[in-house]
Specification:
Number of domains: 1
Radius of gyration: 17 Å
Strand content: under 5%
Distance between the termini: 36 Å
Helix content: over 70%
Number of strands: 0
Shape: globular
Length: 236
């Protein structure tokens, strides 16, 4: 495996994405065989997991001012741009249900999975580790976690999870290829602030999964870029 890692520049990200893809396909197969009541309870269980994961990520922030400024400013910007409607328009053949939940919404399933795959520090640090010439130990460990998570995600949320595996590959692979340059900017404090804002978004998604409150979380996506810029300015 170390020989393959030395020959393929983004080996760790490739294995990670294939693991998530395999888990997603298994989840889709399981979903088609589950009765509605089982799908429903697993959907709510996933909501609880997403809530806990979001809280854990949000607590990684060490600067509340950066977090609140990023989520508020990013949400306003996303609302002005209308990201939620534009992204849903790209997947109009996968409409959201009339009851306002996120179930079966292709774009929001993709968003949930993407945040879980890419939002934590493990993937970013693992990609940097590989890009700087080390064996991708972190990404190998993350592959197992993402494989298990993908089964649960796809069985509850549907095929949008498959696209998230591709997004994760390009995201982590890009960091690996440009690790030398990005290492200066993606320091642990900056990663913590990005993860913190991503955690807030996951909490918003979890509230929708639990059918408590439906939020236009996709309009909050610019918050991640704003968090990066603010963290770079204040902690860089």
């Amino acid at each position: 495996m170390e020989l393959l890692s030395s020959q393929i520049p983004v080996f760790g990200s490739l294995v990670n994405a294939l693991g998530a893809l395999a888990g997603g396909l298994i989840g889709l197969l399981i979903h088609s065989r589950l009765p509605e009541r089982v799908t429903s309870i697993s959907f709510h269980a996933l909501g609880l997991f997403t809530l806990v994961a979001g809280i854990s990520m949000a607590l990684s922030s060490n600067n509340m001012l950066i977090m609140v400024s990023s989520i508020v400013a990013g949400s306003i910007l996303g609302e002005i741009i209308g990201l939620d409607q534009k992204l849903k328009g790209l997947s109009s053949h996968h409409p959201a249900p009339a009851d306002g939940t996120v179930r079966n919404s292709f774009t929001e399933a993709c968003l949930v999975a993407s945040l879980l795959y890419c939002g934590g520090s493990m993937g970013i640090l693992g990609a940097i580790e590989e890009g700087l010439g080390g064996f991708p130990n972190l990404l190998m460990a993350k592959t197992l976690l993402d494989f298990i998570a993908s089964i649960a995600l796809a069985s509850s949320l549907g095929p949008g999870v498959i696209l998230a595996a591709a997004i994760m590959f390009f995201f982590q692979g890009s960091i690996t290829l440009f690790a030398g340059s990005l290492q200066t900017f993606l320091t642990p404090p900056i990663i913590d602030e990005i993860s913190g804002v991503g955690g807030l978004m996951l909490i918003g998604i979890a509230l929708g999964l639990l059918e408590i409150k439906r939020m236009r979380v996709m309009n909050m996506l610019p918050s991640i870029l704003i968090a990066f810029a603010l963290a770079l300015f204040f902690t860089g």
